[in-house]
Amino acid sequence: xxxxxxxxxxxxxxxxxxxxxxxxxxxxxxxxxxxxxxxxxxxxxxxxxxxxxxxxxxxxxxxxxxxxxxxxxxxxxxxxxxxxxxxxxxxxxxxxxxxxxxxxxxxxxxxxxxxxxxxxxxxxxxxxxxxxxxxxxxxxxxxxxxxxxxxxxxxxxxxxxxxxxxxxxxx
Length: 171
Description:
The chain is an all-alpha fold.
């Protein structure tokens, strides 16, 4: 589960010959003709088709597969937030990086993340190939703040559904 309400498809595995895989493919092809919002071919379709069915016993829990919610993508990139990320990763099997969200936040995942960020820590051996960011850290942080400010429903969801402190999300 991506969160308590949605099933995410970043990590999928079906038994060989499972008819649900074919059904999901058919539904995806059909829905692709009329996409109007993000997630129609991913979490929304999967939740509709899988939730409450016999697949529930095969669904991974949020803490193991999605310890960082997509709303928290910037925590991976911001200096000073690595401790929060590391604490959420304890016991996790995977870390979904939510790459498309970086762009929505005004962050550039193709550039070197700032020193002191979780990404800078885990990518330290690879950073020699990444160019420094061409935008100032202050401007990137302002982009994140503006993005969060444009989402007035986030605090309630973040605290009530995810059970997390909204202040942790602030840059």
